[in-house]
Amino acid sequence: MKVMRETIVSTARELFRSRGYAGASMNDLADAVGLKKSSLYVRFPNKEALVPAVLDLTLQETFGERDLGSKQWDAEFVEVIELIATTLTDRGRCVGLHLAYGTSDETPIAKDAVRAFFQAHRNHLSSILSRAMPADVAWNIATDTLARLEGATAFVAIFEEKDAMKRAVRLSIEEAKNAAAATSLSSR
Asked: Is residue 79 part of a domain?
């Protein structure tokens, strides 16, 4: 039976999302995709090797088809953070955050992949925002936006409170628009 790499990676993502890094096993993954464990190890030598592929797939789904700069900065910012928020709300967990808590210095490939995943999010949001405000302000707002969205995910997962995510999105949009307005006023 031929199992596509994308199927393995997307199934691994769901296992990581639901069970965390420590709770997901290569055996579980092999069973879930219908492969023998030895066939899975041919494609991925260990669980840690799956982490970059899982996070790359997630980044591609979030940012891959976007033509940065094709829209007004505010419309693009809203679109991206609403996509992130919807994904987090629908899934109830952030695979990146789940992996962040499960990786360590003993899993350097996974740890570096998690860092790169969140850095890519922050860089992307910051590049959108920097079209309307100074780079340092954009960087801080991008960081705060991600912190809000990730924090709201906890309330979605624990209490099924989707309103927390809606507030996180609204506050992030307000913060960005206020910073852009202040930048515009100071440049006059």
From this structure: yes
